[in-house]
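Deliverable D5.2: sample structural annotation.
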Amino acid sequence: MIALDGGRFVMGTDGPEAVPGDAEGPAREVTLAPFAIEPYAVTNHRFAAFVAATGHVTEAEREGWSFVFAGRLPDDHAPTRALASAPWWRQVHGACWRHPDGPGSEARPDHPVVHVGHADALAFCAWAGGRLPTEAEWEYAARAGRATRWPWGDAFDPAHCNTFRGDFPRGPAATVPVDAFAPNRFGLHNVIGNVWEWTADAFEAPNGWAGAHAIRGGSYLCHPSHCSRYRLSGRTGGDRAMGHVGFRVVSARWSTGGSATRT
């Protein structure tokens, strides 16, 4: 855990980069009590220990399938249902945290666990003696004292994060180890790219929908041609397990959140 002092910071943005309907703005002052957050997203290795200790069965395992990025599938993979709003997502039976690309694939121990729903993340956090971060805590920790669009500045630089390379959606994009790329100034790795991260909060926005929870940070599939949410203020919602969503843990021994004061 990385212990953070909390205090005031400006959350969100009023800039032109904000996605309409995502409620990134208005920029507002937020006050947080001290809290502690893990420097890495939860790995497959740690999630396996949780499952071994508790017998937990994830959402994707119960349902028998999950959505996998089409670029992760072999050319001869049998046709499957595509997500209507994003046809590069394919329904793959047998895909789960153990087999992220479907039967025959194996989860890499040092990569972030994926195909875990919000309830699965909550169950892990409870077992680990922690909880999910609030959106305010996530953004405060990810910003590490900066008011820029990304942890390293206002100009995007793919050398700092794992986002999609090439002509989206063609290409075999994938997760990388949780300690890949340099950390931000607070010591957190991969707050931008690699996997979206569940937060404790509902996704309350004009673009929101019932049952969605806010996810932050973007993933290995973010690309300017279809998604500009891989910024420190960027946000969207999720309501099920998928192949690009994971999470990190906040210490339950610390404060449970902060209060947002709009200015």
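Annotation notes: The chain is about 15% helix and 20% strand. The helical segments are 44-54, 59-63, 118-127, 135-143.
The annotation will be released with the project's public dataset once the embargo ends.
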